[in-house]
Amino acid sequence: MPEPQPLPHRQRWLLLTLLAQVLFIVAVAGAGYATMAYGRTITLRTTPVDPRDLMYGDHLVLNYTISRLPLNLWSEPTRPRRGTPVYVVLRPVGEAYEAVRVVAKEPAVPAEQVVLRGWVADNWRRGLRLRYGLEKYYVPEGVGKQLEKQATRHPMLVHISIAPWGQARITEAQVIK
């Protein structure tokens, strides 16, 4: 019986490269599922706009109530610059969470509050516009326009799961009738 020959050096590198790519894809998908499994779910108020993209199909572009915040919530001595990462402290107000303060470094918060990481998209004399990476939510074909129409008459809530390591993901969007 012939002994198996070791892989040539080039084939070994090709195999390792393929394995690394597969592991990367599995890790990205696993991080999303882990965020939903281990994360804390909160609800945010939002307004959908522009539900259609020719390349990607139906989706909602979400404008949260915490996307534009007054500058008096910023608790640092110097104003943040565009692109600066920030941490928004949220607390429950009624059926959704609202911003309490915005800080430059992740704070420790009481159990009833949560911290959501965002980035400064713009700032002006009296306020901040923040992005969270949660502004697009893809829905089944034909549902985007329907949700947008319903949300003009009723409030829309989005459930977000925030993992202990800071990653956030939309789990559900619903119009409250």
- Unreliable parts: none
Q: Helix count?
A: 2
Helix/strand order, N-terminal first: HEEEEEEEEEHEE
User: Mean pLDDT across all residues, rounded?
Assistant: 88
Q: Could you say how many structural domains there are in total?
A: 2
Between the first and last Cα atoms, what is the distance in angstroms? Answer: 74 Å
Question: How many strand segments?
Answer: 11
The helix fraction, in percent, is: 10-25%
Pfam families: GDYXXLXY
Protein name: GDYXXLXY domain-containing protein
InterPro entries: GDYXXLXY
Descriptive labels:
6-stranded antiparallel sheet, 2 domains, 177 residues
Layout: helices, strands, pairs:
Blueprint: H1 9-38, E1 40-49, E2 52-53, E3 57-64, E4 68-70, E5 85-93, E6 96-103, E7 114-124, E8 127-131, E9 136-138, H2 143-153, E10 156-162, E11 168-175
Antiparallel strand pairs: 1-3, 1-10, 2-3, 3-9, 4-8, 5-6, 5-7, 7-8, 10-11
